Amino acid sequence: MFLAKDGYERTAWRVAAEEGKIELLHKLWEWAKEVLTREELSNNLFLAKERYERTAWHIAAEKGQIEVLHKLWVWAKKILTQEEFHNMFLGKDGEEMTAWHMAAEKGLIEVLHKLWEGAKKILTREELSNNLFLAKDRYERTAWHKAAEEGKIEVLYKLWEWAIYVLTT
Questions:
Q1: Which of 48, 51, 49, 53 is closest to 94 using CA atoms?
Q2: Most buried of the four, 56, 82, 124, 162, by CB within 10 Å?
Q3: Contact 74/104 with Cβ under 8 angstroms?
Q4: Number of folded domains in the chain?
Q5: pLDDT value at 102 more than 90
């Protein structure tokens, strides 16, 4: 029941993350820790993908669920290996978009800021450059392209500011 999926291959965990239901997500987390192994928590909560190959991390970023992103970060740090955590943070969906792409496309400055602060903590300068700023979707578009395509000038300013930081530090 806990890991049951709907027609879109979403678990209750994934739906709660999408809808920003923090209390429900917290309760599901408490129950999950009681009955699932570390591998099951990793594979079925943090790294599980639905029909469009998006994780709870992707969808929280796309929907602007900052508090959900924070909770997922905190809980994932307790459960995931470093490699798994990087896979969650930098993972790509079916369109090969990262959470960074999604937030840029939607113009979600606060989400980008949250992702940026997290990225600086876990990624090297090279990883910031190659796996964040230069990460490409299936059409070879970066987050910069996605923001430009959608006319998100504030996002372009922020991406530029942060890219300069990466290049000069």
A1: 53
A2: 56
A3: no
A4: 1
A5: yes
CA dist., res. 65 & res. 49, Å (int): 18
In CATH, what number is assigned to the domain containing residue 140?
1.25.40.20
CA 21/CA 4 separation, integer angstroms: 18
pLDDT of residue 2: 78
pLDDT at 167: 85
**SS3 category, 68:** helix
Which token pair is 95? 């369109």
Parent domain of 152: 12-168
Residue 100, in any domain of the structure? yes
- Token digits of residue 92: 């790509």
pLDDT digits (tens, 9 = 90+) for 107-149: 999 999 999 999 999 999 999 999 999 999 999 999 999 999 9
| Vertex 104 angle, CA 99 and 105, to 5° | 100
For 163, how many CA atoms within 13 A lie in the half-sphere containing its CB?
15
The structure tokens 């209750």 sit at 12
Burial label for 24, CB within 10 Å (0-12, 13-18, 19+), is middle
